Amino acid sequence: IITLAIESSCDETSVSVLKNGREVLSNIINSQIEQHKKFGGVVPEVASRKHIENINGVISEALEKAEVSFSDITHVGVTYGPGLVGALLVGLSAAKAIAFAREIPLNGVNHIEGHVYANFIEHKELEPPFICLIVSGGHTHLVYMKDYGQYEVLGKTRDDAAGEAFDKVARALGLGYPGGPQIDKLAKEGNSDAIQFPKAYLEEGSYDFSFSGLKSAVLNYLNSQKMKGLDIQVADVAASFQKSVVEILTEKTIKCALEKGVNRVVLAGGVAANSGLRSYLQGECGKNNIDLKYPSLTLCTDNAAMIGCVAYYDYVRGLRSNLDLNAIPSLKIGDHY
Ligand code: ATP
Ligand code: MG
Ligand code: FE
């Protein structure tokens, strides 16, 4: 099966060609970061327009890089949610047009499932079951993945997503967009014990997360330093904030794996690129005899290869999407339309 996959849920126009779901022949990622930087975040209208401008070129590039033509493609996969509705519709329309013209099957894919499946591309031997910590720009989930397409959501954020917290704190520190990578870089130069920021554990036994209190604590700290006329050591703030996020994510994930009796943990989503999270979680997993897997940096953030991988496994399980498939901006993990 040769899958052509399209991802356009946010600010990356990406197209990938895959063979049997896990072998990536091409994975072209056209990022709009430059266009959105000056606004400090993704502007939905701008994103939709850019996707329209880019999509055909990115499809051609993906085919060329994979050294295949349209006639070699036997299957189409596309993100239909969650994400920005206008952005999703661009990829969805292109995918439907290809499936219709070539008379080949179409599978609509949940973007968040895509983040999880990035690990199947990275680690060829990896199979469910495992506990997955999904930490992206808009989502923070602790999930028990029992089998392909089968998820039990054990915990999620009650307010901000982990990536969102990184982006908001970075913005307050004047670091620009997207903030996660900047904080990660600066944190390496700072003292993570310089400032004690809170960690929200919530009720005993809960696997849910909350990051808005931490974000507010950072903003309050910055304001009070300014009021007192004191210097702000940006690297120390970045390191101390990151430490709080990393520790809470790690503690809950390990506890969850131990309580569920699952000895494999998988990390997914844009924040999985965070070097502090990778190394701390790795260390704690090691201490508890838990095997940890995470994707390479390019596969952590948005890309179409991960979408193609989900589409392939859905197809193999007999799922198909119709040509009237619509974009679903608030699609939940495990839902199918
Ligand atoms: P979602 O997947 O929830 O729909 P999204 O697609 O916008 O949201 P992703 O592409 O998964 O999000 O990830 C982008 C997020 O990852 C941003 O919030 C970004 O700041 C964060 N991020 C990227 N690299 C790092 C890093 N090294 N450290 C921390 N955060 C990072
Ligand atoms: Mg993005
Ligand atoms: Fe994403």
UniProtKB/TrEMBL annotation:
Major site of localization recorded for this protein: cytoplasm
A family per Pfam: TsaD
Location(s), subcellular: Cytoplasm
Keyword hit for Acyltransferase: yes
Binding site for substrate: I134, V135, S136, G137, G138, D167, G180, D184, N274
Cofactor(s) the protein requires to work: Fe(2+)
Domain Gcp-like: 23-308
Residue numbers binding Fe cation: H111, H115, D302
Molecular function in Gene Ontology: tRNA N(6)-L-threonylcarbamoyladenine synthase activity
Free-text cofactor note: Binds 1 Fe(2+) ion per subunit.
Cited PANTHER family: TRNA N6-ADENOSINE THREONYLCARBAMOYLTRANSFERASE (PTHR11735), TRNA N6-ADENOSINE THREONYLCARBAMOYLTRANSFERASE, MITOCHONDRIAL (PTHR11735:SF6)
Recorded family membership: Belongs to the KAE1 / TsaD family.
Descriptive protein name: tRNA N6-adenosine threonylcarbamoyltransferase
Protein species of origin: Alkaliphilus flagellatus
